[in-house]
Description:
The protein is an alpha+beta fold. It has two domains: 23-38 and 66-207, no CATH class; 241-379, Glucose Permease (Domain IIA) (Distorted Sandwich). The chain has nine helices and twelve strands. The strands form three sheets. Strands 3, 4, 6, 7, 8, 9, 11 and 12 form an eight-stranded antiparallel sheet that branches. It has a two-stranded antiparallel ribbon with strand order 1-2. A hairpin with a 2-residue loop joins strand 1 and strand 2. Helix 4 crosses helix 7.
Amino acid sequence: MKPPLPPTMSAPLRGTPKKVLKPGLILAVTGVLALLCCGGAVSAVIFGDLANSQSNLSNALGCGGPNVISVNGEFDRVGPYGPDQVRNAAIIVKTGQEMKVPPRGWVIAVATAMQESTLTNHGHLGPRNDHDSLGLFQQRPSQGWGTPEQIMDPSYSATKFYEKLLKVDGWEILPLTVAAQRVQISAYPNAYAKHEPLATQIVNSLTDGAARAVLVDGQLRCAGFGEISASGWTAPVGAEVVSAFRTAQRPSHHGVDLGAGRNTPILASASGVVIVSRCDVGNCDRDGSPSTPGCGWFVEILHAGQVITRYCHMNSKPKVNVGDRVAAGDIIGVVGTTGNSSGPHLHFEVHLDGDRSSRGAVDPVVFMALRGAPLGKAAV
């Protein structure tokens, strides 16, 4: 069964005890969460000092705790999912914790169950049933997943999902939809990706931010540069923010400048599809200048949830073409200074709602910190 998923909405967070935020951060983070869920015109909001404190934001939000979560008690609604559905997500996460599966696996598993069953433990649905599919992952007894009684046990079905996921070579760095499809062998192989943002939110809400973490030597810690957080995001370069988003001096600066040196590899920040790869000035075979218009050589990638990332001023023709599917951490080009640029750096933008214009732009520092991929020196 694969019913459509309602649009993502913000929701209260619930899980292990949270770190205490300073009052200013509480207000700012509330605004950030509302912005990231709504986008559009509100993306013009500027978050002041918070935009220049990405490491403080990352630390305040948390990167998971050491304890296995409880599946008892009451659960809050998260977006379109009610308490019973969130409890099922908690069972999936708890099973992953007990099996020592890294948190990236929890996000993949929750997103898969969102697509297969809307996090509802379905029994046989009569004529609406997909063959003999049952449970949270719509596993089929006839395909060797277990007996109907076993599959209807959420812990059992989650265990079987994880067992197969762990046998997929390189599953932790594969795009979510690819990893999920290797397990599920679905008739809709690209359907899982759209659930990744909300699955990330649910995992974070249940675990004090484990989707912003990586698992190292059995311990969760915040992801650093060169590491892909459980949310599936990573910083494009490890460099200081040398010019921030929409400052008083540069109100039309719709991204951030990261001061990486010429020919530094630029990484795709998350898996997605390349939608732009070109030069937007007359000649990108030479360095640009402050009087040159445009990005020079640049790339745009469309990610799950209609998020677009833009990478400007590349030194040479990008290493990817329109239509290419990339994974987080793939090299897409190298840092340069083509286009409207006074020296080598990466100009990096994030846009919501599939809106490539300035209306869709949000502060990349805040967006990336929320996903466990902080920009700036803290990421190095």
